[in-house]
Amino acid sequence: MSGHSKWASIKHKKGKTDTARGKAFSKLIRLITVAARQGGGNPDNNPRLRDAVLKAREINMPADNIEKAIKKGTGELEGVSIEEATYEGYGPGGVAVMIDATTDNRNRTTAEIRHLFSKLGGNLGESGSVSWIFERKGLISFDKESVNEDDLTMLAIDAGADDIRTSESTIDIVTSPNDYERIKNLIDENKIPYINAELTMVPKTTIHLEGKQAQQMLNLIDGLEELDDVQEVYANFEISDELLESLEQ
Question: Mean pLDDT, to the nearest integer, of 105-125?
C-alpha cells in the first residue's frame, strides 16, 4: 500500500480485523469498560464510549454484554481492575510502532510485547521514543472502485477535512478529532460506502518497505494484534498493493 499506510487499510485487505470472534468480544469489552470508567456510562455524553459501543454492535455483540461492560466501568458491577497502557518501539527497517493496550496485569503485558518485538525483528523503546511521529486524527477510508473520487473529494473539502490522501486502491479522508463525527455523519447521510472509519493515530511520515522487511513487519503487527491485551497497533510504514498481494499468496 502506498500513501500514509494506515494499518486499517492493510487489515481490510488481509481480512485480519480479528480472526476469532471471541477475541474481538474480549478486547471490546475491556475498551468499553475503560471508556465508561473515564467518561461516564452514557454514550451520548462520552464519544469514546459511543465509538466502542458502535464497534461492538458492528460485530453483533449482545446488548447484555455491552451493558455489563459499561456497568463494570461505572462501578455498578464488580469487575477486575483494568488499566490502559501505551507501548512504543521500532520494528524492522526502523518503522515506528505504537501500541494501545488494556490490561489487568501490566507486568505480563509488557513481557509479552517485549518478547514479540525481540522475536520478530524489533525493539521495545522508552515512553516518548516514537509518539511524536503520530497525530490523533479521524480517518475514513474508501475503496476507490466503490466511490466517485471527484464527488468524494469535493464533499470532504466542503466539510472542512484536514486532508484527502490517495493510494493505489484507497482514498482516505483525514479529519481533526473534533470534526470526525460531523464529517462521518455527512458521509453516512450521503450513503457513501467506506471500508473503515475511526479515531486513530496517523503517522506524519512513513517508511517504504520491500521484500523481507515488509514480511517481517507484517508478522510483527499480526503477532501483536493476536495478544489479548493489545487493542490497537499503529505503524508508520507503507508497502505496495502488488507486494501485499504477493505476500498473502
Answer: 94
Average pLDDT value for residue range 170-188: 91
CA angle (226 as vertex; 222, 230 as ends), nearest 5: 105
Q: What is the pLDDT of residue 20?
A: 58
| Pairs from 148-156 (Cβ < 8 Å, separation ≥ 24) | 152/192, 155/186, 155/187, 155/190, 155/192, 156/183
The CATH class, in words, for 84-132+207-241 is: alpha beta
Question: Which three cell numbers mark 205?
Answer: 511520515
18 is written with which cell numbers?
A: 480479528
C-alpha cell at 47: 464519544
User: Could you name the CATH architecture of 134-203?
Assistant: 2-Layer Sandwich (3.30)
| Beta-bridge partner residues of 138 | 175, 199
| CA nearest neighbour of 4 among 172, 135, 153, 149 | 172
Q: How far apart are CA 247 and CA 78, in angstroms?
A: 45
Give the whole-angstrom CA distance, residue 168 versus residue 173: 15
33, 65 contact by CB (below 8 A): no
- Give start and end residues of each alpha helix (H) in 120-210: 149-159, 180-189
Instruction: Indicate the average pLDDT of the chain.
Output: 85
Alpha-helical segments (H) within the chain: 7-14, 21-39, 47-58, 63-74, 106-119, 149-159, 180-189, 211-226, 241-248
Instruction: Give the residue extent of every domain in the chain.
Output: 84-132+207-241, 134-203
Conformation bin of residue 211: beta by default, left when phi > 0, alpha when psi is -120 to 50: left
Would 84-132+207-241 and 134-203 be classified into the same CATH topology? yes
